[in-house]
Structure formats: structure tokens, C-alpha cells
Amino acid sequence: MNNFIQFYYEKLQFYEEQLMEDLAELVSIRSVRDETTITNHAPFGRTIRDAFDQMKSIAERDRFLHEDFDGYAVHLEHGSGDEIIGILGHLDIVPEGDKEDWTFDPFTLTEHDGYLYGRGVNDDKAPLLAAYYAMKILRDLNIPLKRKVRLIVGGAEETTWECIDHYFKYNRQPVMAFSSDGDFPIVNGEKGVVQGSFTLNNEHPSMNKSPHLLLEIQSEKQRGYICEKCIAIFESSSPESLKNLLLEADEVIISNQTVTAFYKGEKTLSRNPQKGQSGFFKCSKDLVGIREGIRNAEEFIRLLETFFLEDVYGKKMGLFHEDQEMGISTMGIPYVVYDGDHFEVAFDYRFPKGQTLDLAIETLQSFSDQNHLDLIIHKTHDLLYVEPDSKLIRTLQQAYIAVIGENAGCITKGGISYARALENGVAFGPTFIGDHPNTHKPNERIRIETLYKAIIIYCETLRLLAS
Fold first, then answer.
1. Could you name the CATH architecture of 3-191+384-466?
2. Over 70: is that where the pLDDT of 240 sits?
């Protein structure tokens, strides 16, 4: 361990109580985008504005130079020099969901069994403060820097990214940078993303004597998770026989001639659909199994069986790609709904090198045209890949090895971090292999040891990058 790292740990110990107080203040703010409270200098709503103000108050207390960019973003600075080393983070969060699913109050920072709990504690409030305290420790130690260190804080990372687009209209890119919103060792690859939906106009019920009619399919219109819960509602002249055919359903309720089937999977991020069970797949299996008995939805069921069922990699649509360094493509289904007239199936496609954004959209459009579907593209991001032998990666590896004592390999993730907004940047921490932070889920958390290690790694990283 070099002398610098010993000094970092000593300073961190001095600031430990203040760090927890600052984090508690930020976690207490429900900084979810709220368009009903938009005002001047609060383009994402009042609570995100409150989070920015709290971060500015922390910077003012510690006498850091800072600047507010119309409520879209804020930056804080240490050092001087013509070139900038950047750290990107964000203060907006996703909603907490059902509080009944939380063990602890999501907006009260809670320490339990070596972890800190609270919405946003891992994504991205504690990592943001880790970078901030690294800047603070470097300044306290009077370590000379040749480049300016700038912490850039956005307010719409979880939604539209207007924050970072607005910021870089008025500020030049850092020469090297990282986002504190990923994993250790180094996320040098982030898969490309196409999110959207297919819509099918349903055929009229046929005149055959099939006993069952599909009335409705319900699931939450969400983005970011696979379809966890799905409800199919039928009208049937033989409800008991239909119930016996719904083999995948977790529960079936009969009320006169109405049969309602409930399907439950696992809450799983749509960027990793292979890691969880889909309620949509369970429902699809039953629909395929009883198709001869349903007098509508024939074309929809054909599509389910041919192109969607049990395919989490995009193989059936011709979207599968594999890259030696970035891995394989994935295709998640966040929701499926049917209102009696239209079926809608949402998708979340993520792809490695070897696929391009333009080709992916072209393939999706061709698939839609061939199957008489309407295609709507909701969001796209091109893939990110930084060569492992670049100066940025080699410097991050040097810092990681100095602190952790292990080699720092490069990994690819399906997630979307601010690194994509950088000309020369990657996601770097805070999550270590073996951590389970429950990002975007109930009981979001960060290991205290993980947070402290991240601070020390960021101290050494900034020292190396800026000097």
C-alpha cells in the first residue's frame, strides 16, 4: 500500500460521520421526476431541484466552486488547469414502488448488518458522494494536480437524459472521465439499446364453436423490468374446463362465465431477462396450449409461439448477436396488454459489437412489416466500448490494483450509464462482484465497506488522472 492510500484512509475516518449525515440528507429527498411541479430552474420538478440545492449546500459548506446550469445539472470543481478530469453522477431516482415490499423506510437512511438502505443509496447518491469526498480528501491533502477535477451532477439520468445534453451544450468534454454508476473493476462496454413496442390490431372472433374468448390481458406498463405479473381474462361457455387447461397460472378465479388467470414471475431487470422468470412467458404457454379453444387471438398466439415464447436473446427475430468481448444480445419483454381491440407487446433489446443501432431498427421494422405490426421506438442508445489498452483504462486499472491488490479486468454490462455521454469515459464502480445492491428494486442498499473502498479507489484514480 503506497503512502497516499494510507493518508486517504486516515482522512476518510475523519469524515465518516459527516459522510453519513450528507447521505442521509440526500436519501431523505424523494427526487423522482415530477412534471406537475416544473418551474424555472426546476425542469424536472421540485424534489430534484431540492436534491440539487442540498448538494450545492454541501459544496458551499466545504467551499468548493460550483455552478448551476438552469436546474438541469450542477458541477463542482477542484483544482485548476486547461484540461478537465470528469466524474459523472446523478441525483434523480426511480420511484420506490410499493412500500410494503420494503423492510425499511425507503427515504430514511438505515444501517443494518453492514449495509446502508434507502432508495437511491446505490443509484446514485452514495456513489456520487464517494466521488465528492474523494475530491475533498485530495484537496485536504494538498496533492498537486495539473488538471481540473469536475464532478458533474445530472437530474434526469433515469428518464430522458435532457440534463446531460443541456450540460454539454455549455461545457466542453473532459479529456478523461468516469461515471460512478456501474461496477468494479471497469465497465468498458455497455450494450446498445432499443426499447419500444409492437402493436397488433386483433381479428374479430371467428364463427367457429370454440368455447373460449380472450377478453383482456393486463400487465403494468413499465420499462426496466421484465413482465413480472400478468392477468388474462376470458369469457367461456365451459369455465371449469378452461380452468383445467390453464396449467401455468398461479391462480384462477371463475365468476359465472368469466375466467381470470393470474401469472407471477420474478422482478428482474429487463436488461438481464435471462436471470428471472417471466409472467408473460407463463401466460404465453397457456395461450399456445389452448389456442384451438380460443375463437379470437389466433394471429397473436402464432406470434407468441413463433417469435417471443422462451426467447430472451432475440434469436427468433433474427436479432441475436455475440461478441467475444461484449457477450451476447438480450431481448426482454417489459409488458403485454390487450384491450379487446389491440395487443401491445413491449420489448427491450440490448446488443454487443457486431450489431449496429441502424441495423437493429431495420430488422425490427422488417419483422413488424412482415407480420403486420405497428412498431413504436421508445428509446435508443448506441453501444459504448473503450479499448482495454487505452490510457484511461490503464490508469483506472493502476488505481484499482493499488487499492484492492487485484487485477482490474474489463467487463460489459447491459445497463445505461452517463459514460455513454462521454467522448472518453467508462462506468467505474461502486458495486463489487458479490454485492447485491437491489438497484431499482425494494430494499436498495450499498455495503458500507463497498462505499469506503470506492472512495479510496476514486481518490487514487483522480490523483493519477489529474496529475
1. 3-Layer(aba) Sandwich (3.40)
2. yes
Nearest 5°: phi and psi at 301? Answer: -65, -35
Q: How many CB atoms lie within 10 A of CB 10?
A: 11
223 band by pLDDT with thresholds 50, 70 and 90: confident
pLDDT digits (tens, 9 = 90+) for 381-390: 999 999 999 9
Q: Is 212 helix (H, G, I), strand (E, B) or coil?
A: strand
Over residues 11-20, the pLDDT tens digits come to 999 999 999 9
280: which 3 cell numbers?
408473460
Q: Cell triple for residue 93?
A: 431516482
The 8-class DSSP code of residue 207 comes to: S
- Determine whether domain 193-381 maps to CATH 3.30.70.360: yes
Alpha helix positions (H), 154-259: 162-170, 239-245
Measured CA to CA in angstroms, residue 41 lies from 52, 175, 199 at distances of 10, 28, 38
Task: Give the model confidence (pLDDT) of 35-59 as tens digits.
Answer: 999 999 999 999 999 999 999 999 9
Selection from 463, 457, 396 nearest residue 425 by Cα? 396
- pLDDT for 2 equals 74
Residue 207 CB-density burial (10 A; 0-12 exposed, 13-18 middle, 19+ buried): exposed
Joined grid coordinates for residue 154: 445530472
CB 336 within 8 A of CB 227: yes
Query: pTM of the prediction?
Result: 0.89
What stretches of 143-257 adopt beta strand conformation (E)?
A: 148-154, 176-179, 182-183, 186-190, 192-201, 212-218, 229-236, 251-255
Specify the amino acid at residue 102: W
Backbone angles phi, psi at 184, to 5 degrees: -95, 150
pLDDT at position 426 over 70: yes
Q: What angle do CA 278, 282, 286 make, to 5 degrees?
A: 160
DSSP string over 385-426: E--TTSHHHHHHHHHHHHHH-S---EEEES---GGGG-SSEE
Residue 457: half-sphere exposure toward Cβ, Cα within 13 Å: 29
Is residue 201 exposed (0-12), middle (13-18) or buried (19+ Cβ within 10 Å)?
exposed
Contact (Cβ atoms closer than 8 angstroms) between residue 463 and residue 138: yes
Q: Pick from 462, 460, 434: which is nearest to 184 by CA?
A: 434
Q: Measured between alpha carbons, how far is 443 from 110 in angstroms, rounded to an integer?
A: 10
Domain chopping of the chain, boundaries: 3-191+384-466, 193-381
Q: Could you identify the residue written with the cell 455495503?
A: 447
Q: How far apart are CA 346 and CA 270, in angstroms?
A: 11
